[in-house]
Amino acid sequence: MTAPSPSPERKKQPMAPSPVVLVTGASSGIGRACVEAFLAQGARVVAAARRSDRLEDLRSQHGDAVLPVSLDVRDRAQVDEVLGSLPEGWSPVDVLVNNAGLARGKTPLHKDDPDDWDQMLDTNVRGLLNVSGAVLPGMVERGSGHVINIGSNAGREVYPGGTVYCATKAAVERITRGMRMDVLGSGVKISEVDPGMVETEFSEVRFHGDKEAAAAVYDGVTPLAAADIANVVTWVADQPPHVVIADVLVYPLDQAGSGKIARRK
């Protein structure tokens, strides 16, 4: 009986590298939760924020899967320099989560501190543009990539004491829609996730560190957690190539709009 001839060896296909996700405002809240959620899916995450000590804490927990990057999104020159010189293996960016943002103050416009306006405009609008401007051209050139902008239900309506904040988040919505049109046909996806009430450091920052005022925002309500929004963000990013989740509005059960809250007391 003739011995069977050995079967030809199959060529081993190289494993595709894990996708690279860039998350801004990654040191806390929704940003940090997004870092954790993408890591759980096997991605490598560039975690960008101003508070570098918190970023190092992320790296100590997750090792080489996280690249901490000290970055102020308001500084365009710094954004271009840092994101234009990411280490080998951390570029190109496959998914950008524009999360960095804040609210400052909750007084009528005529009583506002103009410095608060500047912080919100520079972070929520210019910061998003700066980072998108640094990452999006490469995505368009490659014909692939996904930008997910974190907006707010405040971008869809206005409430007393939130005039400028609501305006900045409305700008995020307009920028997102326009960006989607600008890249149409390129293979790049553009999405927006708009959270309602989420319990993070958001209110504490808004009230300039007043913990009592911040806690009162969530009194009698079970708000969303940062992880809830991160789950939505990763779901948006995980759709098939031909599917774009254009925008998602996410509320806790007891919210139906800005100021429309059922407090269970």
TrEMBL record:
Has keyword Oxidoreductase? Answer: yes
Q: Does the keyword Plastid apply?
A: no
Task: Enumerate the PROSITE patterns for this protein.
Answer: ADH_SHORT
- SMART domains for this protein: PKS_KR
Q: Which InterPro entries match?
A: KR_dom (IPR057326), NAD(P)-bd_dom_sf (IPR036291), Sc_DH/Rdtase_CS (IPR020904), SDR_fam (IPR002347)
Q: What's one GO MF term for it? A: oxidoreductase activity, acting on the CH-OH group of donors, NAD or NADP as acceptor
Outline the extent of the Ketoreductase domain: 19-193
Entries under Pfam families matching the protein:
adh_short
Q: Which family does it belong to?
A: Belongs to the short-chain dehydrogenases/reductases (SDR) family.
What is this protein's record name? Answer: Ketoreductase domain-containing protein
Organism name? Blastococcus xanthinilyticus
